[in-house]
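Much of the work behind modern protein science is quiet bookkeeping, done one molecule at a time. The protein below has been through that process, and both of its lines are reproduced in full.


***
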Amino acid sequence: MTNEPARPSPSLIIAYCDYSYRGSPNTDPLLLAASIRRYGGACKSVPIWLMCQDILDMSAQISKKATALNVDLLPYKNDVNIADFPFAWKGIAAAEAERRAEGEAVELLWFDRDSLVLNDVSPLLLRPDKNVSFRPVNVQNIGEEAGTGPEGDRSGFWRRACELAGADYGALGTTTGYIDRKVLLFYIAAGLVGVRPELGIFREWERLLRAFAADRFLQGYCEEHSIYKIFMHQAALSIAVAGKIGVGERQELPTLAMYPLNFWESDKNACRPTALDDLISLRYDTVLDDEDWLRFPMSAELRNWLRDNIR
């Protein structure tokens, strides 16, 4: 009887969840995985996890396709206490992926479902001296402009959120919005984040989502100002990162990653891509829900691949 050699642990696991808001995006939930397998370059064969709200609800066709793409369908439990906050469930799914990845991989790269990978994923990997990678938000939304001090947070939202997290409001660091170029207190997008699983950043995100949703002040403020309810999950993620990781351990990802397709026409940046094929990855929001995506410049090969795989 021979002992089989132990399987080496992957250095990278890619994960995302099947969450959609009110039915959008209505694309195939395996579209991102298919794009990684087709265009992911040196990383196209890494393990991919699709975190599912209810695997039993997955159709036989989806299950069969997941097997063909070598994608693991893994469960996560919803939390009804945060159901009023759109997109917060993504943090619950990310935390479950992180729990599973700890001890299994050096890095967990988390995408939003409405993402596509169009080139080699390698430029998104964490450098040895970094512990988290991210893209800044595109526009300010609920972010606080930097340089105004604690008194600049007129609503008290960020100060209260930091208090609940045990994070120093004055030491969050800063980010610059990609589209509006506003310098904000550290505020990142939840659509593309790389972490060292053992640091528990996504589990802290999960903890803060629940704490924020249960806090009377933040709950009331979000009810009064709906934009805070929509983007509360991004504030929780940003503070979770800032509370655990120093500024020098953060790695801002290139502008060709997580490119916001819904801002294509309004993007005035000099680094704006000329075609979708130039991008490492993009987020399409609801753009692929109808045939309007055909207006974007891209190669015939990419256009045909999208036609064949969107649904």
Notes: The chain has one domain: 12-309. The longest strand covers residues 188-195. Residues 4-8 have pLDDT under 50 and may be disordered. Residues 2 and 46 are 28 Å apart (CA to CA).
